[in-house]
Amino acid sequence: MSKIFLKTKLKSKNENHEFSGKAIKNKNIITYNDNKVITKIIMDKIISIERNSDEYLKLSFQEGKKLKGKYITKYGELEIETNTKKLEKNKITYDLYINEHFIDTFTYNFEYSIDS
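and the corresponding structure tokens:
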């Protein structure tokens, strides 16, 4: 387990969210607290991002594939899907669909370094 410094940026036409701060890297999982939302980046054959607070969101990414995710709100569960357009080492570009409706194209960047 390593303490790291993490920078993330989520960008689309309608959204721009950035995080910069301390995180924990345990093997292939980075965990951090983004404004009281526990967030995990899971780096495996399929990359996943989980966000857990009052709502739970799990998005999965594999280049060239449409993958189902999970989005649970206080009103119930919504069908969510990603279509990964490009997957690079620290950058993911994807289309997001909720209940089969296109929402937007997003780019998620993340980089980290060992925290001293």
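(Above: one complete record from the training split.) Residues 80 and 101 are 9 Å apart (CA to CA).
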